Amino acid sequence: MQILSFLGFTFLVAIIAYLATRKNKGTSSDGYFLGGRSLTAGVIAGSLLLTNLSTEQMVGLNGSAYANGLSVMAWETLAAVAMVVTALFLLPKYLKGGLTTVPQFLSSRFDVMTKTMTSGLFLTGYVVVLLPVILYSGSVAISGMFDLPTLLGVTQIQSIWICVWGIGIVGSIYAVFGGLKAVAVSDSINAVGLLIGGVLIPILGLIYIGDGNFLEGISILTSKNPEMFKSMGSESDPVPFHTIFTGMMLVQLFYWGTNQQIIQKALAAKNLAEGQKGVLLASFIKILGPLIVVLPGIIAYHIFPDLQVADEAYPMLVRKVLPASLVGFFAAVLFGAILSSFNGALNSSVTLFGIDIYKQHINPEADEKTVVRYGKRFGVLLAIAAMFIAPLIANAGSLFAYLQEINGIYSIPILTIFIVGFLTKRVPALAAKVALISGSILYILSQFIMQPYFQEKAVALAEASGVTDVVELGLIEASAYPHYLDVMAILFVLNVAIMLVIGKLRPRDTDYVQEYTEQVDITPWRYTKQVGVAIFVTVVSVYIYFA
Questions:
Q1: Residues whose CB falls within 8 Å of the CB of residue 294, separated by 6 or more in sequence, listed in order
Q2: Nearest-angstrom CA–CA distance, 380 and 370
Q3: What ranges in 390-505 are assigned the alpha helix state H?
């Protein structure tokens, strides 16, 4: 029954997506890559949320909440602030230029090579990190919910391979052959199911804690575990409170404001007003995100206080509180979230390759049909590569933490050149190239060479001094080197300084002025500023309440 309901809901979403997009041939760049620039606010909001929300959040962030409490909600609530900035300042600039890819802005602001280098960084990050992590974490969740090793008579590793290729193939069909509109329509349907199912899990968990009484469950959970409900993380937490004002906001601005995988949904808006409404609607819902990706972890901490692996918290809670009749539906919704993140990243990769690399460098004379065709072929190769890599990252540790830290290799350099590009007029292309290279190299040196060295030295000195407690050694190791979010902030400031110095020594010959292409109506939504302020005040109020 669970399998039937899973398959039924999954096929229903696929049929609706097909019917909604069958008239969109996807042979033009706008038609395939941007859904014909026809997306409305509701579709944009749903697609933004589903592209972001997947098993690395559902499983990974709840696991982090299980281990560290409410302070990890910064990954959700502060995203709302970054989305407001995107709606107010970045999206109008993107749509004014009629962009299909975010790096296209860099071509006009700096030069073509800067755009190509940025697209290459995006593609490398997607195929090596993002796509495999999505596939692997999703496969772990689906395999665990249906107990596939027992059901199919295979080993755990074999079940992961089966799920990876199943998710990869279905996601590729959506992203490569359906284009952005198929991705966005299916996302919007799954968004409703995910919100319902995601909210249902903590509700059922609280009812379970309260022995049938929801309000009693809240009272028991908060009174028995007050240390878990503090919004301001300590220095030993994954998100120390001070990092909210350093690297955290930089990460959020990169993700919601410059990341092709995300912003492509807003670039497909029929006009600026619809795009702003869609981003702000998603922003408001994002404030409620901790109910789905943080609170269940705290509930699991109360019910299962002795788990050895924190990332097991969410799957165990689902199995514990969800009626068997709903497991298939929730698995289908979760499958939709996995597909959304996978095919969103894959569609963005196809777009970056087709527009910024194939058309720009390989075949400048190619017509739009040819660009789309070769973009699809590249997408198939990328998906296959990700499906081979995914099962190999089983020993990467905490997937959510791994994903956030490793993304710094390209996120901070890319954010740097966008910020400087938007806010200055004379900084030259040379500065952008230097910042991309230096930012990536310095982050790699810091996090993967210097950090392990200093941490090993600190632990060795502590052990030589007679320290044997594992917890104390862990704290010494963590404090021996700056938090990676602080490192991001330091390197961001350093990269900005490098660009400004180069701009002072070798400025552009003329001021940069962005031209309006008139491809999109850029009349803003009249309530954008008011809604943005309301969202910001709400976020601050949440932090104050739980402080």
A1: 61, 62, 65, 70, 72, 73, 76
A2: 16
A3: 399-406, 408-423, 429-445, 451-464, 470-479, 484-505
Q: Give the pLDDT confidence of 323-379 residue by residue, as tens digits.
A: 877 777 777 777 777 777 777 677 777 777 887 788 888 888 888 778 877 877 888
Total domains in the chain come to 1
Report the alpha-carbon distance of residue 368 to residue 312 in Å, rounded: 47
Q: Is residue 111 part of a domain?
A: yes
Whose tokens are 């970054």? That residue is 82
Q: Which amino acid is at 384?
A: I
> Which residues lie closer than 8 Å to 396 by C-beta, 6 or more apart?
133, 402
The pTM for the full model equals 0.81
Structure tokens, 496: 């900005």
- CATH number, position 356: 1.20.1730.10
Q: Which amino acid is at 336?
A: G
Q: Which residue segment(s) compose the domain that 207 sits in?
A: 2-16+30-399
Query: Percent helix, strand, coil in the chain (nearest 5)?
Result: 80, 0, 20
For the chain, the farthest-separated pair of C-alpha atoms sits apart, in whole angstroms, at 72
CA 483 to CA 447: how far, in whole Å?
10
CA distance 504 to 424: 11
417 falls within a domain: no
Cα torsion angle, 16, 20, 26, 32, sign: negative
- How far apart CA 148 and CA 162 sit, in angstroms, is 9
Residue 496 lies in a domain: no
535 occurs within a structural domain: no
